[in-house]
Amino acid sequence: MTQILDGKAIAERLRGQLATRVAALSFKPGLVVVRVGEDPASGVYVRNKDRAATQAGFASRTRHLPEETTEAQLLEEIAALNADPEVDGILVQLPLPKHIRAEKAIAAVDPAKDVDGFHPINAGKLASGLPGLVPCTPRGAMHLLAEAKAKLPGARAVVVGRSQIVGRPMAQLLLAADCTVTIAHSRTADLAGECRRADILIAAVGRPELIRGDWVREGAIVIDVGINRMPDGKLKGDVAYAEALPRAAAITPVPGGVGPMTIACLLENTLEAAIARRG
Ligand SMILES: NC(=O)C1=CN([C@@H]2O[C@H](COP(=O)(O)OP(=O)(O)OC[C@H]3O[C@@H](n4cnc5c(N)ncnc54)[C@H](OP(=O)(O)O)[C@@H]3O)[C@@H](O)[C@H]2O)C=CC1
Ligand SMILES: Nc1nc(=O)c2c([nH]1)NC[C@@H]1CN(c3ccc(C(=O)N[C@@H](CCC(=O)O)C(=O)O)cc3)C=[N+]21
């Protein structure tokens, strides 16, 4: 029987554990989400983060800046949050309006408060095997692999996608866990062939059902990071779920897989950043 990795339930349990740890502190870890403009998808995510954080006992707020905010104004806002002792975690919601360079905003966040783990300092630490803040989505995927009791050392892991925010850090975490890691992308010569070798298959592409059932090795663990909004409003992953299900040992659904774990790991990172910074 294929194990369906219920990210919603696992994230709920993790948030409960975090709430218990937060309740034992003498302060509320502070999280600020900075949102610029009106990207429609961001509205839902930002509200979900805010609700999860508040429920778990964090001091959470959203700083919503208008679409016309200049890059310089955003950097000033970030500098103020860096200097605020009550703020432990800062997340600049992506995408940003086109007139703002995302890499400038990301690099402006104090690495000690960078709960997205996107700052080059944290990315460099991860690539060097040093402790630092780790991006939430790959971190959530690692929790799900633990839930699947994946035997990582020596396993062949294939990560499809090489973005700064998902694919690359995912590959680094699997490498740190002693997997043999392949990173595939849009220029990969034989994507189906690469996927078929995977004991652990991570899809982070952003193309609905690109990965077909017969690309999945019998007994593989499949983590589908993709979140694709279809014209009918429903969400689909990057993996053809119904086809892959009978072949996989374990698989994540979309929705209800990696997405909720991302939010739980944001809280996990914020708690860790708070404890590290406040001692
Ligand atoms: N569950 C969650 O919490 C989150 C989900 N997501 C979702 O994950 C998906 C990926 O996000 P993100 O990493 O930001 O996306 P990006 O668009 O930044 O990266 C996509 C990657 O997929 C590769 N790719 C695109 N088309 C193909 C193809 N036909 N064959 C092989 N590789 C391909 C690209 O290759 P190349 O580099 O060559 O262009 C690129 O490396 C999206 O659906 C996004 O919505 C994202 C963040 C969080
Ligand atoms: N600075 C920054 N950090 C991010 O981590 C970040 C970001 N910007 N921009 C957008 C992406 C996307 N992302 C998701 C988070 C939760 C769900 C999630 O909870 N998904 C639910 C369903 C949500 C729904 O129904 O729309 C699920 O998959 O079950 C999805 C996607 C974080 N991102």
Automatic annotation (TrEMBL):
<comment type="similarity">
    <text>Belongs to the tetrahydrofolate dehydrogenase/cyclohydrolase family.</text>
</comment>
<keyword id="KW-0521">NADP</keyword>
<keyword id="KW-0028">Amino-acid biosynthesis</keyword>
<dbReference type="InterPro" id="IPR046346">
    <property type="entry name" value="Aminoacid_DH-like_N_sf"/>
</dbReference>
<protein>
    <recommendedName>
        <fullName>Bifunctional protein FolD</fullName>
        <ecNumber>1.5.1.5</ecNumber>
        <ecNumber>3.5.4.9</ecNumber>
    </recommendedName>
</protein>
<keyword id="KW-0658">Purine biosynthesis</keyword>
<keyword id="KW-0378">Hydrolase</keyword>
<keyword id="KW-0486">Methionine biosynthesis</keyword>
<feature type="domain" description="Tetrahydrofolate dehydrogenase/cyclohydrolase NAD(P)-binding">
    <location>
        <begin position="135"/>
        <end position="275"/>
    </location>
</feature>
<comment type="subunit">
    <text>Homodimer.</text>
</comment>
<dbReference type="Pfam" id="PF02882">
    <property type="entry name" value="THF_DHG_CYH_C"/>
</dbReference>
<comment type="pathway">
    <text>One-carbon metabolism; tetrahydrofolate interconversion.</text>
</comment>
<dbReference type="InterPro" id="IPR020631">
    <property type="entry name" value="THF_DH/CycHdrlase_NAD-bd_dom"/>
</dbReference>
<dbReference type="Pfam" id="PF00763">
    <property type="entry name" value="THF_DHG_CYH"/>
</dbReference>
<dbReference type="GO" id="GO:0004477">
    <property type="term" value="F:methenyltetrahydrofolate cyclohydrolase activity"/>
</dbReference>
<dbReference type="GO" id="GO:0004488">
    <property type="term" value="F:methylenetetrahydrofolate dehydrogenase (NADP+) activity"/>
</dbReference>
<dbReference type="InterPro" id="IPR020630">
    <property type="entry name" value="THF_DH/CycHdrlase_cat_dom"/>
</dbReference>
<feature type="domain" description="Tetrahydrofolate dehydrogenase/cyclohydrolase catalytic">
    <location>
        <begin position="5"/>
        <end position="116"/>
    </location>
</feature>
<keyword id="KW-0554">One-carbon metabolism</keyword>
<comment type="function">
    <text>Catalyzes the oxidation of 5,10-methylenetetrahydrofolate to 5,10-methenyltetrahydrofolate and then the hydrolysis of 5,10-methenyltetrahydrofolate to 10-formyltetrahydrofolate.</text>
</comment>
<dbReference type="InterPro" id="IPR036291">
    <property type="entry name" value="NAD(P)-bd_dom_sf"/>
</dbReference>
<keyword id="KW-0560">Oxidoreductase</keyword>
<dbReference type="InterPro" id="IPR000672">
    <property type="entry name" value="THF_DH/CycHdrlase"/>
</dbReference>
<feature type="binding site">
    <location>
        <begin position="161"/>
        <end position="163"/>
    </location>
    <ligand>
        <name>NADP(+)</name>
    </ligand>
</feature>
<dbReference type="InterPro" id="IPR020867">
    <property type="entry name" value="THF_DH/CycHdrlase_CS"/>
</dbReference>
<keyword id="KW-0511">Multifunctional enzyme</keyword>
<feature type="binding site">
    <location>
        <position position="227"/>
    </location>
    <ligand>
        <name>NADP(+)</name>
    </ligand>
</feature>
<keyword id="KW-0368">Histidine biosynthesis</keyword>
